[in-house]
Amino acid sequence: MLDTRPLLIATDFPHISRQPLETLQVNLGYKCNLSCTHCHVNAGPKRTEIMDLETVDSVLEFIENWPVTTLDLTGGAPEMNPHFKYLVEKATASGIKIIDRCNLTILGEPGFEDLPDFLADQGVTITASLPCYMEQNVEKQRGKNVYWESVAALKTLNKLGYGTDSRLELNLVYNPDGLNLPPNQQSLEQDYKHNLQTEHGITFNNLYTITNMPISRFGAMLLAKGLYQEYMEILKGSYSEANLATVMCKSLLSVDYRGFVYDCDFNQMLKMPLVWKGMPKTRLRDLVGQDLQDNPIMVGEHCFGCTAGQGSSCGGSLSE
């Protein structure tokens, strides 16, 4: 697969530093039941990288000793990690907010049918990928039958109280197709809510719009089609300095399946580790009790994806 990494390292993106840590985002592995075209992780059914129990325990040790407010679980499909339920149960007992970044279709896979009830019982927030409310667009990005499997999963979640019970938050994620930046998040959320309610009786809390990053599978597509330079010009031409104040890497720490730490999930995929005390790589367990505030953040050309237009983060746009 073509790799954009050599094109992204050298950059004139502004220098930024860390603020107080709020979110620990943990990638439980790159194995997934889907292979989406926009996936920056290059996840899929054939990936074998999975976080082991020892590393899961180091995550639990960290959140017990650091006042983070949110544990954000991602993948691949994080639920495919055999220690997923163990981690969720232990973390829930600590009182921390837990987010499961779910692709929805996993909830209908054989062996995972009990997941919706488990997530509801644990009060886990579900942030689910649904790159469009129209069948054709979803299947173009994510594969055949994914739209209807996602609709079925959303209906199951609604029956359990997700999207209606204040204790059970259900958010959807939109990724644009092609070279486009996301449209206005608030307007698109209203379109999603109207369409999904009218067509399927589905309700949810929030829609998050996320810009596609020029890395991994999406980056390889750009290179293969000769569109990389054009896309970077779009990102850099839409740069908004105001978004620098709230980019997610300032308050988030990303952990890979081996326990190494990065400033964000995108840096994780680009093998750009957190800079800490001159070490080439740092494990999460080495940061217990350490203060990361004001630590410099590793930046590259891909960072223009987070600051373009309305801005982009794992929690959606940064400005309206």
Strand order of the largest sheet: 6-5-4-3-2-1-7-8
Amino- and carboxy-terminal Cα gap:
36 Å
So how many helices? 11
- For CATH, the homologous superfamily is named as Aldolase class I
Order of helices and strands: HEHEHEHEHHEHEHHEEHH
* Oligomer classification: single chain
| Strand-pairing-aware structural class | alpha/beta
Using the coordinates above, name the CATH class.
Alpha Beta
Shape: globular
Q: Which segments are poorly predicted (pLDDT under 50) over 5 or more consecutive residues?
A: none
Beta-strand proportion: 5-15%
Number of domains: 1
Main sheet specs: 8 strands, mixed
Average residue pLDDT: 92
Rg is 19 Å
CATH architecture: Alpha-Beta Barrel
Q: What is the CATH T-level topology?
A: TIM Barrel
Tell how many strands the DSSP assignment holds: 8
Percent range of helical residues: 25-40%
Q: What can you see in these coordinates?
A:
- With 320 residues, the protein is an alpha/beta fold.
- The chain has one domain: Aldolase class I (TIM Barrel).
- Helix content is 32%, strand content 11%.
- An 8-stranded mixed β-sheet has the order 6-5-4-3-2-1-7-8.
- The longest helix is centred in the middle third of the chain and has 16 residues, at 185-200.
- It starts with a helix and ends in a 13-residue tail after the last helix.
- The model has no long low-confidence stretch (mean pLDDT 92).
